[in-house]
Specification:
homotetramer, 261 residues, Rossmann fold, 12 strands, alpha/beta, 2 domains, globular, 6 helices, nine-stranded mixed beta sheet
Chain lengths: 261, 261, 261, 261
């Protein structure tokens, strides 16, 4: 495989950034959207990459991802992985990190994060925006976008874009936190943007609100209609499943008074 | 122990391929049949090695296999391990990988797989066939052999042998997946052949159907009668156990109304 | 980051002592108060550092601490970590080790402890005092301070300060034990000072008694009033929470005879 | 600490054999008795070391042993560890390995075992006798000593001493198995001697029978009276505990018909 120094290299027993396309950047912003609460970050980042027609530039494999391969519809298999997309247009330079999974243990998160940061450093990344959901445990009427930054002096800049500070409490778990936490120690700066969400459901609405703020920050314009279409599709699927379950309930008498266990 | 470079080497704290017999190959096909769903792959691969009278060429030990030794009937002990058998006759060259166990964690699977691929590379393997069961959760009348390949262009070749593509969904867990997934990144190509099976039982029938297709692919002919004998033996054993349990049930009154706990 | 040899160093995938302020010591005593039983040690050590106005000299990061970042009230994030404070006044030289977390597994505790001891060695530490709670499983009227030392000849010295020996039984788990256990093998000497405590509650009283003995040993005088204020604050908080729960109980009828589940 | 090459060495983050006393051997037999089923092996090996007045020659520390220190009655702490004792008298040379704990995971068992074997190799050990209990799940009238060897040709020699072969089934878990399993791959030979035991209780009787056979093999004579004294002491303790529990039962009505939960 092609490593980040451009050399052919054997798969080793560690996290590996495999370069698919070489693309040079001067000062790109990294946007991370790996799977997390309500899939808010993942949906947003994936949509962004798609709408920008960003180019796949690297694949990340790790012994800390589950030891499974995915069977695709076309009859082929592929490893679980993370993927980095690159986008350049004029002064706007964006990297987007999405993927199937995150590492689960602390050791593994550290290794994966450090390997990724090595790669992002080689692409001259200085600013990192991680995306996530902020679980409220309840449905939210007006979704706010909360933020937490690596350095205090960044707050003003993001507040102007509508990001709310000081409201998010607790900890940020996983890549969205580690990229900023370890990143800060390695001289990166950045923000975690969190769309408020229930937490127990996939939330396209929160992703959409998040994307609005994100696009404003990145100074790009994208069509958000597709996110509504995906939402409609997802909701139809969920309803069908629920109907199936309710049919089963009726036939088996679950939940009815006549059913005694 | 004899390592893959032919040198004496001390046991280290990592997965180790111990060469038992040196045997050279030009372009062998690797068949993997480690323990998995319904033991479909293991039974098939073991039967193949036995019928071909293949030669034991390597033993694989790993700190990631359980820390137990097996007490054999002859009064000796042996480590848990994987074993590689080699077979050559004219143009037909086959390696068969079977064993007691698989590593359980992702890290461990990566290490074991990479060590094995190093060894298989040294034997000029380019094509890998992994065997497994495809759990249907229900009994199957007509057992189909499903496939998933590393590269799209391989599909045609295997379809001609009766392998069905595009039907298997989800992921392949463990060695059968990893050898292909990591293998693909390391320039191997291959297929996972899956015999449909219930999933909750040892399934000799599925193994037999799998073997028919496999032998056709490998261009070898073997006697399959022994697999039926093993099946009969296994079924007798299971019935005896069930009878014992039912005797206990009767005497202790389990499940009867007279039994009150 | 600044490593213990004073060089800039990249974050690696291991426990890392990041030097924040260089401060030289001739023969400092290390006081450890990481989170443990009843938070007895943590409260005492934190109070000591605060009252002495000790200076933050190092931060310890580790892949064995949870992969989370804390969102602070000021809108910024920070990694979970341990922190070392330094204090010098005349002949009195004290290092204080406190933090958010401890490593959970044995391997991790060994790595973290050894890295810390490397650092403490470089600061000429020879004596280590670890603080903890000694769980009695019941409320204690007169809190005794129990001790267990690395070397028998140290007992007399500490007995004079009111520490009771031979009464504590069982094992000391985590940093308070490891720093002394591994420390002993690495030629450090020291004591674990344990304040008797119930074990199931945060115990400011035990911390206070512990601090009295500790300050006598360290030959420093500090104001202990703040610990009482913190205690009052903590108790108020707990009471409010309990009241809320009891309100819920009343409204939902928990625990009353009319409530049937 | 003093390492196995006789050099001073810092504690590293791996299993460490710390030499306490240098003692030379020509061809010693290693006897292992770490904690296992019914403590049969541990009691026997400990008794042997005591009666032979064997000399403590090495201590083994490991990051894979629990991260705890033991508080001793004399007011000092010590790390959990394994200990090697040495005994020499004429042609009889014996090493005895006992300890507080075993490593729990497979990786850890491999590391610890390999480190120990490095040490035993340096002392010219060729033969290993591991001790254990063989759980029968029921009380045994006449305790048999079962064996399983590394090499078939050893069976005769041990059969003459009353060891029974071919009867023990299943696997040997932990050090008693690993020292022989990995040992065999590293050119050691040996036997696991198992005293039949219930499995759920500490079994001094089985240890005593085991010791009789072991002493015959080792060609030493020791007094076994102390094992009976220990047994009596242990039984007294267990009875007292049971009486206490039965007092509680009476007062609280456990187990009586009048008690309704």
């Amino acid at each position: 495989m092609q490593n980040i120094e451009g050399k052919e290299e054997k798969m080793k027993n560690e996290t590996y950034v495999h370069i698919v396309n070489k693309m040079k950047f001067k000062n790109p912003i990294l946007v991370e959207g790996l799977p997390g609460i309500g899939l808010v970050g993942k949906i947003a980042a994936k949509h962004l990459a798609k709408e920008l027609k960003a180019k796949r530039i690297a694949e990340i494999y790790s012994p800390h991802f589950p030891h499974q391969v995915i069977m695709k519809k076309d009859g082929t298999i592929r490893m679980l992985r993370n993927v980095v997309y690159g986008y350049k247009k004029g002064k706007v330079e964006i990297l987007i990190l999405i993927g199937d999974v995150q590492a689960v243990t602390s050791d593994a998160q550290f290794e994966v994060t450090n390997k990724m940061l090595d790669y992002f450093e080689s692409l001259n990344v200085k600013e990192i925006i991680t995306l996530g959901g902020y679980g409220k445990g309840t449905t939210v009427d007006k979704i706010k976008i909360l933020g937490s930054v690596t350095h205090k002096e960044l707050i003003k800049k993001y507040e102007k874009k509508g990001v709310i500070f000081g409201e998010a409490k607790g900890t940020i778990i996983g890549a969205a936190g580690m990229l900023l936490g370890i990143g800060k120690l390695r001289k990166f700066n950045g923000i975690c943007l969190m769309g408020e969400t229930h937490g127990a459901f996939v939330d396209y609405n929160s992703s959409k609100e998040l994307l609005k703020v994100l696009c404003d920050i990145l100074e790009v314009k994208i069509n958000l209609d597709n996110i509504d279409k995906q939402k409609a599709k997802h909701e139809k699927l969920v309803k069908e499943e629920l109907n199936k379950l309710s049919e089963i309930d009726k036939s088996e008498g679950f939940g009815s008074l006549s059913y005694i266990r």
